[in-house]
Amino acid sequence: METKRIQGSQYARSLIEASLDPLFTISPEGKITDINNASISITEVTREKLIGTNFFDYFTEPDKAREIYKQVFAEGFVADFPLTIRDGKLTDVLFNGSVYKDEYGKVIGVVVVARDITDHKRIEAELVEAKEHAERATKIAQVAKIKAEKATQIAENAVISKQQFLSNMSHEIRTPMNSIIGFTKVMLKTSLTAKQKEYLTAIKMSGEVLTVLVNDILDLAKVDAGKMIFEQKAFKMDASISAMIHLFEPKIQEKNLQLIKKYDPKIPKVLVGDPVRLHQILINLVSNAVKFTIQGKITVGVRLLNSDEDKVSVEFTITDTGIGIAEDKIEYIFQNFQQATSNTSRLYGGTGLGLAIAKQLAEQQGGTISVKSKIAKGTTFSVVLPFKKTRGNVESVTEIKEADLKIKGLKVLVVEDIALNQLLMKTLLDDFGFDCELAGNGKIAIEKLKSKPFDIVLMDLHMPEMNGFDASRYIRENIDSQIPIIALTADVTTTDLKKCKAVGMNDYISKPIDENLLYSKIIDLLKKPGLINDDDLPVISAKCTDLTYLINRTKSNPQLMMDMIALYLEQTPPLIGSMKQSLLDKDWDSLYAAVHKIIPSFHIMGIHNDFEGIAKKVQEYASKQQQHDELQQWVLQLENVCSRACIELEEEYNLIKKQTDERKENITFSC
Ligand code: ADP
Q: How far apart are CA 595 and CA 601, in angstroms?
C-alpha cells in the first residue's frame, strides 16, 4: 500500500515537472500548496518560500487573479486567461486552471498552469509591426502609382497637344509653301539668265526641303516611331550634291569660309533612292558645319564604299574646322531637342532637332550616322547610305516626254478653293496647252459639269460648301458621269486615299504638285481610265517585286531563276481568275484553295508582306465560310498586285534571258 502511494506520488511529481510552464496547486483559500521547478525559475523564489504564500500576490493584478481563481471553483476550469506575473521581467502568461477533488469528490484545490507567452507576444507584436510596415509601404506604393499615372497622363496630354500644335502650324506653313514652290517652278519655265535660273533653283530646293521638314515635324511622332515613307526614284547624285552645296555659297562667302567638294568618280551616275531625304540629312549636317565654324573650311566628301551588281553603299563626310563637341556631349546630340551646350541656342540658334531627324532618316533607310569631334579643332559627321543601281537614265524618269506634249487643248475643270492654288494650277495647265476652268467648291463644279463637257476634273479634297469627296460621289451617282477625277491633296494619308477610292475618284496627286507627275497622270488616265488601286497608296518601293530572295535561293543561277519566274507567270493568272470567280460564286473552299496557293509566291517574289497579310485575311474568312464587307476589295488588291507582279516579272524574265543569250553568244564567239 505504502509502495503504491509512493509510486503514485512520484508519478504525480513527474507529471508536474513535465510541464515547462509554471504549475501551481492552490488550496481553496488561495495558498500555494505545491509548485514545479518552472515556477521556481520564473518567480526566482525558492520552493520553501513559495509554498504557503498567497498565490494571487504573484500577479500584477491580484484582484483579477482572485476573480479567475473563483471562476475555476465555480465552473470547474478556466482556459487561456491572460495575466502578468510580477517577476523581474513581468512575464505575460495565459492562465489555465481546473479544480481537483479528493476520493469523495470534494474539491480540495486548483491546479493552475501559467503558460509563458512572452515569445508569442513578441512575435505577435513583430507581426503587427510588419503588417503596419507593409500597409505603410502599400500606401506609399499607391501614392507613387497615382503620381506616376498622373505624370503619364500629363506626358500623354503634352504629346497630344504638341502633335496638335505641330499639325496646325505645319498645315498653316504648308499652304503658302506650296505656292512658293509652285510659282518658282512656273518661273523656272520662263526665259531666265543663267544666274536667275540658279537662284530660282536654289529657292525651289530650299522650299522643297522646308516642305519636307514641315512634314517631318508634323509627323515627329511618326519619325520617332520609325514609320516614315521613303521614295525610290532615280536621280543624279553628283548634280544633286552640287545643287545642295550651292545653297550654302552665300553663307560661306559671308563668313569667309571655304567649302570644298570631294566627289568619288567611281560612284554610278544615276542611283535610285530618296534624293529629298538625302538632301535633308546633308543640309542639316552642312548647315551645322557652317553654323559652328568661325574660320577655316568645310569639306563635303562623297565616297563609294561598296558596290555589287545592284546596289552601292555611299559614305558622305562633312568635316569642319569649327568649335567641336565635348566628348561627354557627343552621345546626346542625336537626341530630340538636345544641344551640346546650354548657350548653343542663344549663340548659334537652332532647336536641337536636326541631328535627331538626320539620324532617323539615315537609319530608316538602312544607313548609319556617326561623329568624331575635338573641341576647338573641328568635327566630322559621317553618313553611310545604301542606294540601288539602275539601268535607266534619269531623264526618262523626270522629264516630260516630247511626244506627249502633242496632246493639247484638253478641257480640265480645276476644283480648288484657295485663290493662290487656283492661279498656280491654271498656270501649270496653260503651260501644258490645256484649257482650264476653275470652280471654287464642289457645288460650283457640279453646275459646270452639267452645263458643258470636260475631259478631266482635278479635285481638291477639303473645300467649303461641298468638299471633294461629296462632289465626286455626286458626279458618279447623280450625274452618272465617268469623267476621270484626280484628287489634289495636301496631306496624303491612307484614310484619305481610301475615301477617294470609295467615292469613285481615279487617282490622286499630292501638293506641292509635281508638274511632270501631274501631266503624266492626266495623260495616263485619258489613255486608260481605271479606279485608284490600293497599290497606288504610298509604298516604299516603286516596284512591287524584289528578286533578292530568289537571287539568293538560286545562287544567281539564271536558268533556275527563269524557271521559277516562268512557273509564277504560268500559275498566277489562273489562280487570280479562280480567286475572283470563287468569290463571285461564294465558293469558299475554292477561294481558300486559290489564295492558299498564291501566298507562298509573295515571299519568293519579294512582294510586300502587307499583301500576304491581306491574303491571309481572305483565307481566314473563306475558311469560316463568311462574307465580309472588304473581301471584294482585298481580292481586288491581290489581283492588282499579282497582275503588276506578272508584268514586272515578265520583264525580268526577258532581261535575264537576253543576258544569258548574249553570254552564250560571246562564249561561242570566243570559241
Ligand atoms: P541645332 O543645330 O538646331 O541646335 P542639331 O540637332 O542639328 O540641332 O545639333 C545638335 C547639337 O549638336 C547642336 O546644338 C550643337 O551643340 C552640336 N553640333 C552639331 N553639329 C555640330 C558641329 N558641326 N560642330 C559643333 N557642334 C555641333
A: 10
